[in-house]
Every structure is written in C-alpha cells, then in structure tokens.
Design brief:
Blueprint: E1 6-11, H1 14-26, E2 30-35, H2 37-46, E3 51-55, H3 63-73, E4 79-83, H4 88-96, E5 101-104, H5 109-139, H6 152-164, E6 171-175, H7 181-191, E7 199-203, H8 209-217, E8 218-219, E9 231-232, H9 234-237, E10 242-246, H10 253-265, E11 267-268, E12 277-278, E13 282-287, H11 291-296, H12 302-308, E14 311-315, H13 325-340, E15 346-347, H14 349-357, H15 363-377, E16 382-383, H16 390-394, H17 399-402, H18 411-425, H19 430-437, H20 441-453
Parallel strand pairs: 1-2, 1-3, 3-4, 4-5, 6-13, 6-14, 7-10, 10-13, 15-16
Antiparallel strand pairs: 8-9, 11-12
The structure holds adenosine-5'-triphosphate (ATP) and magnesium ion.
Magnesium ion (MG) binds at residues 181-182, 246.
Length: 459
C-alpha cells in the first residue's frame, strides 16, 4: 500500500517552505506548498489536501483565515498552525476555532512529523466514521419518514425519487401548489450521500432581484451600498449538501444566466468579485408553473430548463390521486393529535364523504389546513361535516366534472359549471369570484339567483 497523505504547507517565507517540503517528502508525505496566505486560500479552494500546515502570522491573510477557509472547504481536514510567538491565549483560541494543533517555532522535525501522523490518523477515523454513518442510513431507510401515499402515480414519483437520491443529478420537481414538492426534495436529500450536509433553500419569487443574487452567490465588501463585509452566499453555505431552489420559474432573467453557469461549471462568482468559487451542492429545483409554457412566453431560458430537468418529477395534484386521501387524512390527524398530546380524532361519515369528493385545489396543504380547522372546532372524537371549512361541504362535486357526463352540454350549462367551480375555489366569496371571472359582481349575483330557480343539474 503506498497511499501518501497529502499536506499543504502555507508560509510566507520561502526558506521554510523549502525545508518543510524536503523534510516531509522524505517522511513519505505528498507535499504542496503555498507562499503566503492568499496563495494558500487558492490552493485550499482548488484542491483536496488531507492535512494543512500553516503559519499564523502572514501579511493580508492570516493563519486563522486559512483555518476558517479549510474548515469551510472540508471540516474533516485537520489544520495545524505554526507560530513563532505562541501565547497560551492564542493557542487556546486557535484550537477553539477548530485547529487540530498549535505548534511553536522552532520545533524539532520529529515533533512535527509525529503531529502530522496523528493528524492523518484523526482524519482517517473521521472519514471512516462518516462513511459508516452513511452506510447505516442507507441500510436503514425506514428511519427516514417516507412521504405518505399509496396511489400508483404517487408511488411512481417516490420510486423515481428514491432511485435518483444517491446520485448528484439535478432534479426538477413540478407540481401544483401544496402537492408536496418540498417534502419530496427533503426526502431526496435525506436519502442521499449528502444527508450529513445541509439542506438549504430559497424561494426565488420571494426576494427582489439584487437581494436574491447576493443571497445565492454571496458578495464582497463594498460591492454595493450596505455591503459592509464579505458575505458568503447560500450556495457556498450549502457546500456538501443539497440546495432547494423553490419557485425556480420566478427567477429573473439575469439570474437564470448565473444559475446556468452554476449548473454547467459548478462555480459561481459572488457579487462584486472577480473570481469564481466552486459550488459543491446538489440542486433540487421546484416550480408550480408550467416551465415549458414559460419558455414559450420567453420568461424562462430553455437551456436552463434542460440543465434543471435532468431528472423530472411530476407530482400529481391530490384530486388525481384520491387513493391517497384516506392515508393522508389518517396521518395528518395523527400529527395534529401528537402536537397537542391528545388522541387522534376521526372524520364522521358525512364529513368523510365531503372530503372524498372535494376537488382540493390547494392539494395536501389545503387538506392539512382544513383538518386543523376542523380539529380545533371539534370537542369530541368525531369531526362532523359542519366543522370543515364551508367550501368543502357546500358543493359535493366539481360541476365541470359532474357535467362531463352530458354528451352535448349547452353553453349555458358550461358557463354555469365554470362559475360554480370558480366560486368554490374562491371559498364561496362572490366578490372575489366575480373578479376571477372578470364580470361585475351584480352580474354574478343575477346569474346565481337564476341558477337557484333552476332544478339541480343531475350527475
Ligand atoms: N406525501 C405527503 N406526506 C405527508 N405530508 C405531505 C405530503 N405532501 C405534502 N405534505 C404536507 O403538505 C404541506 C405542503 O407540502 P409542501 O410544502 O411540500 O408543498 P409544495 O408543493 O412545496 O407547495 P408550494 O408550491 O405551495 O410551496 C406540508 O405541510 C407537507 O408537510
Ligand atoms: Mg413549496
């Protein structure tokens, strides 16, 4: 076995670098050197070294900066600091900030080599430990809560998610609001080899363009008013983990270009910086917009779409997987009960009927909210229909669906169906429904009272 541990030596004096290079090579180490802290930072960011040995006092970039950068890059890399003027205080603070060892110059060769060997062992144990943890997690998938559902369409999505989770492939999750896109994204992360790393996310539609840019990519001090210090971006903070780009369809055009670069080159340039920094994250994006449609309208770059859509997961709306309703209701009621430390409540027959036929335009989130609403209003153990939000119990069937059984519906029937459907989606609010329909509220009232005079449409 001839694995040579690699050491990066950082010092501003070339004499010391030369001496250490010769010494450490003779002792069987792979040696890289960097003269000065700046060169040190570049090497740390560009390559993997098993151990870093750095001088503390250097102009511009100090040994402590090296320590911080090395820990950010890979927390398993031991950093040994060397100093000519060791004080107990600085030794303590270096070790507190994560230095493996603090050694005072001049030191004997043996002393240094012994410390480096110990650092190698330490690293090996840490690496092994992390691998073991991952292995355990892989074997024990049951400890990771599986998103709930048993319908064929949902299980197909889950299976694909499980299949791709160990890879680093970019995933695009499309689905209506509330269908569980974030739930699936977290599930993929938890099953992945990156699960020890962070899962960070941002909602691309929630921030103004320049703020979104500096949140994602970071910025350097002075790059804009208010940038009083360097700021690490979220991509950098998620290093080693996964990054969830929520509502990616809302991303402004200029940032779409930057994101494309992240996906192609795996690097990003912080705002105001000249050099790119590496991006080591697995990207999971989500959208409730039809991205293909947004591309046609010129709102979304097609090249970015193809980069994001390496693995496409399409979450079906709840109304298209009604098989999942019972399981979801049971699980959600169970969750609500454990939050309050009470026995789970159940839906009475009539309430269940209403829930089973309702269209759920807001999907699982709407179901969750409706059940919470009902639980709060229910004293006993059975939830009556009256405790559910009115829109759910008011009309049992979505008219458009109900009337599809008519072979040749008249325009009036279709209009009526559409109006009732919008009204239902707006929770019975006539003013809002009129707005959505683009008609005057008085027109809506007139139409509604006419419908009331007519006989109910048969299903
Ligand atoms: N399969 C599922 N099992 C358990 N809970 C779920 C499932 N799907 C969704 N939920 C719950 O429904 C709610 C909405 O899910 P989530 O936030 O993932 O939806 P989303 O698709 O990201 O919605 P939006 O587009 O509005 O952001 C959450 O509270 C989540 O816990
Ligand atoms: Mg979401």
């Amino acid at each position: 076995m001839s694995y040579k541990p690699s050491v990066l030596v950082v010092d501003d004096e070339s004499g010391i670098l030369d001496t250490l290079r010769i010494l450490l090579r003779n002792e069987g180490f792979e040696v890289a050197t960097a003269q000065g802290g700046k060169a040190g930072l570049e090497q740390i960011r560009s390559g993997a070294h098993d151990i870093i040995l750095s001088d503390v006092r250097m102009p511009q970039v100090s040994g402590l900066d090296i320590l911080t950068a090395a820990r950010e890059q890979d927390p398993m890399t031991p950093v040994i600091l060397m100093t000519a003027q060791a004080s107990l205080q600085s030794a303590i603070s270096a070790v507190n900030s994560g230095a493996f060892y603090y050694i005072q110059k001049p030191f004997s060769n043996d002393e240094l080599v012994a410390i480096l060997r110990r650092a190698c062992e330490y690293r090996a144990v840490k690496v092994e430990n992390t691998q073991l943890k991952q292995e355990i997690r892989r074997r024990d998938k049951t400890t990771i809560a599986r998103p709930i559902g048993k319908s064929k369409r949902f299980l197909d999505v889950l299976k694909l998610a499980e299949h791709v989770s160990p890879t680093d492939s970019t995933v695009l999750i499309q689905g209506e609001s509330g269908t569980g896109k974030e739930v699936i994204a977290r599930y993929i992360h938890n099953l992945s080899s990156r699960s020890d790393g962070p899962f960070l996310s941002i909602n691309c539609g929630a921030l103004p363009e320049n703020l979104l840019e500096s949140e994602l990519f970071g910025h350097v001090k002075g790059s804009f008013t208010g940038a009083v210090r360097d700021k690490q971006g979220l991509f950098a903070a998620a290093r080693g983990g996964s990054f969830f780009l929520d509502e990616v369809g809302e991303m402004p055009a200029s940032l779409q270009v930057k994101l494309l670069r992240v996906l192609q080159e795996r690097e990003a340039i912080p705002v105001g910086a000249t050099e790119a920094i590496p991006v080591d994250v697995r990207i999971i994006a989500a959208t409730n917009r039809e991205l293909e449609e947004e591309i046609r309208r010129g709102n979304f770059r097609s090249d970015l779409f193809y980069r994001l859509n390496v693995i496409a997961l399409n979450l079906p709306p709840l109304r298209e997987r009604r098989d999942d309703l019972l399981l979801l209701i049971e699980a959600l009621l169970q969750n609500l009960a454990s939050e309050t430390g009470t026995e789970p409540k159940a839906l009475a027959a009539e309430a269940l009927d209403a829930v089973m036929v309702y269209e759920w335009p807001g999907n699982v989130r709407e179901l969750e909210n409706a059940l919470e609403h009902a639980v709060v209003l229910t004293r006993g153990s059975l939830i009556e229909a009256a405790s559910l939000p009115e829109r759910i119990t008011k009309r049992r069937k979505e008219p458009l669906v109900a009337e599809r059984s008519y072979r040749n519906p008249t325009l009036e029937v279709i209009e009526r169906a559409y109006i009732m459907w919008v009204l239902q989606a707006e929770g019975g609010n006539k003013t809002r429904a009129a707005e959505v329909l683009g008609i005057d509220p008085s027109t809506l009232y007139r139409k509604l009272s006419r419908y009331e005079e007519q006989v109910e449409v048969k299903v």
